[in-house]
Amino acid sequence: MGVISVITLLLVLPGFANVIARAADTASDASGVTDSSELATSLDAMSIANQAESGDSETATTNAEKTATTTSTSSEASRSSEDNAASSATSSTASSQALKTRSMVTKAESTTPAGTLGTVKWWVTPATGSTTITTKWVLHLSGGDFQGTVGNLTSGSPWNDLASSITEVSIDGEITASAATKYDYLFAGLYAVSHIDHLENLNLKNVTSLNSMFSGDSLLSSVDMSQNDFSSVTSMNSLFYLDTHLGLAEDNVTVLTDAVKLNGKTFTSMTSMISMFYYCSRLTSVNFKDWDVSTVQSYVSMFMNCSRLTALDLSTWKMSPNAKLSSMFSGMSALRHLVLGENTLLTGSGLPTVSSTAPYNGTWVLQGTNQMYTSAELMAQYDGHTMAGDYYWATDAQVQVNYQDALGTAVHKSTVMYGADGGPYETTPLDIDGYQLVTTPSNTKGTYQSGKTIEVTYVYAALGPAFTETMTAFNFGNHKISNEEQIYDLTSKTGDLKIKNYGTAGWSLSAQLTKPFTGTTTGASLDATLLYQNAAGERATIGTTQPVQLIADTTSGSGEVNVSENWLSTGTEGLKLKVAGGTVPRQDTYTAEVSWSLTNGVENK
């Protein structure tokens, strides 16, 4: 390995000759559906999804339309009754008004809705905030057995007539199913319900279907079924269909990061998840990592129009090779991070197009690499065996990893990694033949920053001697031109020649004058000789024809040696410059270059 020194000589008449040696190294909101006509259309689509297995699509569409009409009529009638009561109370005297109020309360108490479904009793109690004018109910379910299918698209469950007033649900005892049954539409259409308590009391053994169980619950904030056993369930199509508040707390401000908790490791019989999260437009995250989806055959429209879901971790999913994926991710306009595994499928999944507006460039990038794909390319080319990992929308945020020696010379081509702004990066050193890692930087891990290239530099050394520092300049001082031969001592230097041995053999330092002394103004040549003198006073000429060995070290082992440490202090050891007398052509500044090189020597003893 070599480094170049540039030597400069300034000769003036009748003044000074200034000799300088300088070293140079060679070596880038879909809100919930509230319009009644749009809701009816959406329910129609839901019906098709839920009855796809039976093929009764036409019936499902008709039922959806009936349900939408029934719900609207019921709600309007309820509101009309309340308005009439309020008007009547206003037109009466204070005494009469009080009597009427007591009469209303008595009537309400005597006609509180209640009933029985199978052996499960259901009833309502006033909820917090309930008044004689604005009735709010808590729906209670006792323990027992529904003893059959509990709901359908046309009429829903028995409590659906109270949908406008039920704001909470509490399952107060364990509900079991003694025979195979379906819990389809169990809580569907309860559009005023904000939370459902004690869902763990639903014993799902023998329950085969949860289709549309919570669909249309447009104020429902969260669902916790983390303790339920789903091992009998085969279908949960449209489970959260049009639950447009799911993921947003009841204060309408706080975003819930764990709004949906399902015991996914028990999905061992599941075959269909069609439209499961369709139009859950407030949902920002769901933990899917423990889900067993190995038996699922259809994910059609599963996350369609989940316009606030930013990330999906599907890395642990073992998806069936023949599973249907059409429109699985369609309309997921905020999706910017995918964690894909060995058995993840993407073909035909409707992955949205990546933005090409700065800082984005229209592609997905595999984190820690420079592999970029458009959505179409990723869906078509994804192979879990060779492409698994974290994918982000590619930006101008990047990390450049350098592999250099101590002098900054590359020993391997740099690599560039891309990632999302604020996303994590992690680098590792390479194994490079003939070199060993000597310095690991402090920023091997960090976060990507948009518009910035972060450089991570690993320092290597050859398996043998290597320069760890070189002189950037050295100077022979100022001297008068003389007719006599002159030998000038080194008067100053910047930096040192430091060498460290990373091998087991000794080393030797050699030098060669690669460019003779030449006037920078006149171009004239100077008859000058660069010398090296050791501590014993022995001199070696550094010529232009070949490298000349100056120092041989056989005892230093792997320690660092500063060979130029005493070149100024002793006046004996170091570089010297000999200028022949009477040969200076004229006043000028003369420069030259010298190359330093290291080679392995004999084995250390």
Topology diagram in text:
Blueprint: E1 2-11, E2 17-24, H1 36-50, H2 57-91, H3 94-110, E3 114-117, E4 120-126, E5 137-141, E6 144-145, E7 166-171, E8 175-176, E9 181-182, E10 195-197, E11 207-209, E12 223-225, E13 260-262, E14 311-313, E15 337-340, E16 360-366, E17 372-373, H4 375-381, H5 384-387, E18 389-395, E19 398-404, E20 410-418, E21 424-426, E22 435-439, E23 445-447, E24 453-462, E25 465-469, E26 473-479, E27 486-489, E28 492-494, E29 498-501, E30 505-519, E31 528-533, E32 539-542, E33 548-553, E34 560-562, E35 574-579, E36 588-603
Protein name: BspA family leucine-rich repeat surface protein
Domain MucBP: 398-460
Signal peptide: 1-23
Structure description:
It holds the Pfam family DUF285. The protein has four domains: 2-25 and 470-603, no CATH class; 36-309, no CATH class; 310-393, no CATH class; 398-462, Putative peptidoglycan bound protein (lpxtg motif) (Ubiquitin-like (UB roll), Roll), CATH 3.10.20.320. Strand 31 (528-533) and strand 32 (539-542) form a beta hairpin. Mean pLDDT is 81; it is low at 14-110. The longest helix has 35 residues, at 57-91. The chain is rod-shaped and about 130 Å long. Strands 28-26-2-1-36-30-33 form a seven-stranded antiparallel beta sheet, with no helix packed on it. It has a five-stranded mixed beta sheet with strand order 3-4-5-7-10, with no helix packed on it. Helix 1 runs antiparallel to helix 2. It has 605 residues and is mostly beta strands. Helix content is 13%, strand content 33%. The chain is built from five helices and 36 strands.
